[in-house]
Design a protein that fits this description.
Elements (H helix, E strand, L loop, with lengths): L1 H26 L17 H11 L1 H5 L18 E3 L2 E3 L17 H10 L14 H4 L4 H11 L23 H9 L13 H11 L5 H4 L17 E2 L6 E2 L14 H10 L12 H8 L4 H13 L4
Antiparallel strand pairs: 1-2, 3-4
Length: 304
Amino acid sequence: MRARAGRLLSGLVLLAAVGAGAFWWLTKPAPWHAAHWEGLGEPDLANGERVFWAGGCTSCHAAPRAEDDARLVLSGGRPLKSPFGTFYPPNISPDETAGIGGWTLAEFGNAMTRGVGRNGEHLYPSFPFGSYARMTAKDINDLYGYMRTLPKSANVTPPHDLPFPYNIRLALGGWKLLYLTDEPRVQVDSADPKLARGQYLVEGPGHCGECHTPRDALGGFEAGRWLAGAPNPEGEGRIPDITPGSRSIGGWSASDIASYLETGFTPEYDSVGGSMVEVQKNMAKLPASEREAIAAYLKALPPS
């Protein structure tokens, strides 16, 4: 009887070990193969600047209340409070010590699109790699080339302040298994160049869904509610529904949306407010054709 119990215990231990090994294998950090970042040539800095503004890098990585050229100093540290704890965006200036000046293109690209840090660790999805996963290798190369031309900062940011169990990075592999994908969020007419471009900008570098889509208890997007509005992840209030038929922009035309992104004024001559102020400043830097593509995509969405 005792021998049988011992064999049973040994079997359970073996099963647990196999299960743990399988979980680790399925959820370990998965950077791109090195060849993904090869042969891209010299970065197109003009395109890199466009991607930079579309991606809203300054909104989280510039110092609070930075204006004009100071917004280009990506010193990090602006706290992002969430139900999971407080995240501190890092210094991503080209400083070789405090920033990412010593990173390779592959290290930068894997952080951007796979959520894998320079040392092979999982990154927290407070950094919107779940959206950036849709970005092309060319755009990543151009963006990194442009960012290397920006001012350096020696600022050292504090570590994230997260309670247990959210401070355990291993669990992030399970989160990625559930939610990380580069598939389109919705189906639009991909044969229409303007719609295809708008979809790329909104679902990819623009990462609009990170604030405008509601999340479940694990922090992943709720299925079927793309851009349908959500609680403000940083505090009070609500981020509006921006699908057609919504009370926020449902009655706007595509030209109204494009104008709002350029000027910050609604068709009723109200002005942009809240966290959208930073987003609008970034969108105003884009060519008019990019804002028009974003507007066309938003108008083509199914109503929430």
